[in-house]
């Protein structure tokens, strides 16, 4: 019998045959990534894998190289549901299959309530309609490709600090109209196979045990058939979670749902056998869907693979380039045309230009099958159009939080990239003394070694890892600064000399999912032409700290990280960049954040770019009036120099094809069409949730209520740096001839169509995004946001002088609000105003009209 034969099984018959113990086992995972198998009944296990911008596979340690797509904010910036559906179907689904998995843990569609949120890059937008439509396209595409989508984090997981305990306290209107809406749209249009509950509480109750959210809304109102699983270690009870409707606890390590505890809960009548079997049945439904949709996964060898490392590169570059947003372009500095513009020498500066910045950190991180840096992509693109242009480079200002990892700097003794790792068991589980004999040996090609649960299973509970390699010889004598961080304890030796002691005593830090130490530093003088020996000793028992004397065993989140860089005085770095800028005909500054600043596990503390980045931009802009700034971040950043530079391009995190996409846009091979998926404020104090983004004794007050993102800026009359939906093109467009149909009301729904004529008034082909915003009747007794995005469309590849009519459809979702008193959606009678334009900026909404709904009605469900 093949595992995929379960596709033909009768779920009711299988459930009836389950013993109570088998049903219990099915309601929790096995290990970190699998569901439980019941061989006697032909029930296979299925494997899930982290996304949402790629499929990492089972391993954090020495993971299987994979393709990384742009961040969710970048995907939403395409305003192109068809493209996201295609990418999910053709690329993501196939990547998941290569990792021998059946379910991808994505998409993430929480709301960008505050750009400081550590995982903001993982979520699409501050706008619930854009978030929901992109999420629906993502789910639809990947499920058409035979892979289950597990949409997350349901709901209100909008920050990271204290994420297991804080209470997202909000009005029911805000919950419905803002935070649940993306999930509701995804359920309506794509029906995800699984929902993942958030870690946090909502209005007093953890979501994994919240009957109002799981049972009342998801199950009863939306009639969802999805399997509901927890986030990893996001279960805090047995009876509350089981009874609320949480089908699957993940992972299977350190779980609540053991046979002992579950049977005791049944015996004490906290839960019933019937309820346990109901939860098991929902897990079996997911297993059956997976077996039917992609039988080749379950029947395969279950070995993770990378496949062709370059396959899909064209599609990856397409989605990346279509997400890039041209924020400013004075004097038509872009696209770069060196011959026409007289550019003979271009300098590239910035801490992100040569760095490997492909995504944010945490669950979204993976090992890329290939990666093109911005520097490589720009040089290649300029080489295609002007091979004689001289390119110079200076970092100018360092932008990393942690020292850059050293994968490309360390070799084994026999010349392989990386180093050798020797694992040692200890004398017993409680001993700190390693045995003399090596237990396991591994060739390791990474210097951020997050062992998680991937270390050799034959080791004792406490173990030691010794890492040995040599540094590539330097061309000259160099003072080199090393950085060492560990979740556990570690020491670094260079040529047998102790350089960093992170073993004896530590300071707790935020790395390795908040289990690591802070990064400790040490400097060693490297000699020209010498292969210096590198040796790290690591033990998975962390050292005491001043504020935490507990020497805990890191049995799930152990790891060690070695980084480093040449010692250079910051003033000298800055001066070099400025001098090159003075000598060049144009400057491209590539600056921004990376996965250390934006990551799962903790929030940012500022919207400013790191270190002296802002100073670098200002100084090179003063030195060269042709300065182009390319910014990389997954969420909003402040740009205090925005008025001082002629051209700004926002490039998000773009995945493997980062450099390809940036190069194509700067050189004009691609005419940018991305639009901002969230507002960029001028200062942190202007953010809607400022002042109530941090919890107070566990309470997180959503005081901005419905006025999230651009709705707040309009409501308060605050001018952001860049409006939601903003984005320029290398050509120009005109919107005209707005026509609005008479509303048709039937079967509890509304149908209105707005049509707009779009004309390319420029000199080159381009693609325009048309955005439609609705304002509810001014006669309403309630307060509503001043405008809400309710439809969008793209006019693709419009030739100069050509026009096309774009149709934008509206339904009941565009005209409804949640009425708390009756727990229903309401469509009021009255006049609804429509504004259409190229962004949410008041000056960009040049077309307006209205339609009237003659009679009030109510609805519920989807």
UniProtKB/TrEMBL annotation:
Keywords: Glycosidase, Hydrolase. GO terms for biological process: glucan catabolic process. Coiled coil: none annotated. GO terms for molecular function: beta-glucosidase activity. Gene3D superfamilies: Galactose-binding domain-like, Glycoside hydrolase family 3 C-terminal domain, Glycoside hydrolase, family 3, N-terminal domain, Immunoglobulins. SUPFAM superfamilies: (Trans)glycosidases, Anthrax protective antigen, Beta-D-glucan exohydrolase, C-terminal domain. Its EC number is 3.2.1.21. It catalyses: Hydrolysis of terminal, non-reducing beta-D-glucosyl residues with release of beta-D-glucose. Residues 414-578 form the PA14 domain. It holds the Pfam family PA14. InterPro entries: Cellulose_deg_GH3, Fn3-like, GH, Glyco_hydro_3_C, Glyco_hydro_3_C_sf, Glyco_hydro_3_N, Glyco_hydro_3_N_sf, Ig-like_fold. Belongs to the glycosyl hydrolase 3 family. This is beta-glucosidase. The lineage of its organism: Eukaryota, Fungi, Dikarya, Basidiomycota, Agaricomycotina.
């Amino acid at each position: 019998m093949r595992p995929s034969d379960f596709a033909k099984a009768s779920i009711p018959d299988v459930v009836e045959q389950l013993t109570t113990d088998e049903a219990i086992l099915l309601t929790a995972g096995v290990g970190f990534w699998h569901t439980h198998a019941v061989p006697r009944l032909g029930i296979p296990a299925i494997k899930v894998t982290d996304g949402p911008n790629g499929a990492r596979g089972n391993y954090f340690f020495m993971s299987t190289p994979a393709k990384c797509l742009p961040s969710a904010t970048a995907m939403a910036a395409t305003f192109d549901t068809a493209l996201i559906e295609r990418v999910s179907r053709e690329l993501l689904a196939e990547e998941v299959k290569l990792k021998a998995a059946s379910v991808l843990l994505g998409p993430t569609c929480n709301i960008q309530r505050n750009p400081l949120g550590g995982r903001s890059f993982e979520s699409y937008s501050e706008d619930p309609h854009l978030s929901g439509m992109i999420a629906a396209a993502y789910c639809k595409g990947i499920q058409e490709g035979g892979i289950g989508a597990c949409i997350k984090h349901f709901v209100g997981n909008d920050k990271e600090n204290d994420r297991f305990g804080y209470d997202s306290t909000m009005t029911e209107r805000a919950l419905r109209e803002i935070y649940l809406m993306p999930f509701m749209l995804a359920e309506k249009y794509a029906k995800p196979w699984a929902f993942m509950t958030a870690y946090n509480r909502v209005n007093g109750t953890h979501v994994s045990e919240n009957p109002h959210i799981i049972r009342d809304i998801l199950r009863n109102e939306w009639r969802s058939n999805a399997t509901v699983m927890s986030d990893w270690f996001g279960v805090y009870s047995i009876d509350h979670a089981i009874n609320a409707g949480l089908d699957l606890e993940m992972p299977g390590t350190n779980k609540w749902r053991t046979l002992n505890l579950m049977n005791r809960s049944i015996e004490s009548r906290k839960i019933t056998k019937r309820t346990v079997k109901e939860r098991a049945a929902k897990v079996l439904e997911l297993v059956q869907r997976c077996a039917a949709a992609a039988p080749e996964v379950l029947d395969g060898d279950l070995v993770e693979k990378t496949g062709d490392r370059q396959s899909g590169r064209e599609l990856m570059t397409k989605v990346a380039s279509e997400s890039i947003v041209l924020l400013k372009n004075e004097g038509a500095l872009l696209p770069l045309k060196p011959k026409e513009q007289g550019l003979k020498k271009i300098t590239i500066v910035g801490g992100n230009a040569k760095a490997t910045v492909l995504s944010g950190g945490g669950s979204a991180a993976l090992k890329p099958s290939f990666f093109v840096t911005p520097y490589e992509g720009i040089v290649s693109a300029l080489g295609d159009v002007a091979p004689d242009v001289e390119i110079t480079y200076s970092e100018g200002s360092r932008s990393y939080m942690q020292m850059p990892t050293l994968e490309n700097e360390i070799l084994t003794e026999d010349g392989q990239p990386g180093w050798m790792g020797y694992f040692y068991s200890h004398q017993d589980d409680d001993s700190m003394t390693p045995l003399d004999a090596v237990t396991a040996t591994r060739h390791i090609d990474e210097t951020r070694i997050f062992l998680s649960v991937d270390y050799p299973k034959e080791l004792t509970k406490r173990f030691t890892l010794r890492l040995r390699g040599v540094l590539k010889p330097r061309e000259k004598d160099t003072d080199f600064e090393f950085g060492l961080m560990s979740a556990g304890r570690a020491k670094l030796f260079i040529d047998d000399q102790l350089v960093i002691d992170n073993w004896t005593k530590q300071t707790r830090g935020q790395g390795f999912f908040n289990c690591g130490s802070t990064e400790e530093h040490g400097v060693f003088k490297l000699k020209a032409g010498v292969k210096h020996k590198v040796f790290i000793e690591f033990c998975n028992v962390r050292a005491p700290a001043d504020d935490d004397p507990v020497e805990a065993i890191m049995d799930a989140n152990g790891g060690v990280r070695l980084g480093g860089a040449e010692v250079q005085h910051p003033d000298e770095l800055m001066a070099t960049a400025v001098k090159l800028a003075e000598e060049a005909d144009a400057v491209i500054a590539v600056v921004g954040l990376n996965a250390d600043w934006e990551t799962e596990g903790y929030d940012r503390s500022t919207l400013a770019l790191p270190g002296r980045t802002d100073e670098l931009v200002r100084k090179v802009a003063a030195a060269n009036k042709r300065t182009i700034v390319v910014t990389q971040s997954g969420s909003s950043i402040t740009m205090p120099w925005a008025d001082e530079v002629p051209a700004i391009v926002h490039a998000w995190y773009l995945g493997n094809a980062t450099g390809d996409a940036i190069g194509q846009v700067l050189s004009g091979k691609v005419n940018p069409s991305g639009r901002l998926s969230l507002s960029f404020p001028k200062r942190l104090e202007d953010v809607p949730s400022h002042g109530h983004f941090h919890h107070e004794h566990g309470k997180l007050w959503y005081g901005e209520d419905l006025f999230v993102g651009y709705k707040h800026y309009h409501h308060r009359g605050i001018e952001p740096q860049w409006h939601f939906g903003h984005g320029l093109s290398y050509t120009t467009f005109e919107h005209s001839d707005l026509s609005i149909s008479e509303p048709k009301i039937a079967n509890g729904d509304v149908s209105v169509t707005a049509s707009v004529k779009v004309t390319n008034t420029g000199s080159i082909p381009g693609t325009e995004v048309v955005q439609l915003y609705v304002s509810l009747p001014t006669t309403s007794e309630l307060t509503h946001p001043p405008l809400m995005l309710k439809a969008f469309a793209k006019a693709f590849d419009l030739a100069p002088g050509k026009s096309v009519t774009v149709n934008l459809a509206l339904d009941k979702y565009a005209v409804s609000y949640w009425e708390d008193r009756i727990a229903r959606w309401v469509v009021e009678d009255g006049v609804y105003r429509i504004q259409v334009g190229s962004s949410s900026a008041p000056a960009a909404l040049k077309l307006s009209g209205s339609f009237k709904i003659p009679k009030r009605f109510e609805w519920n469900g989807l």
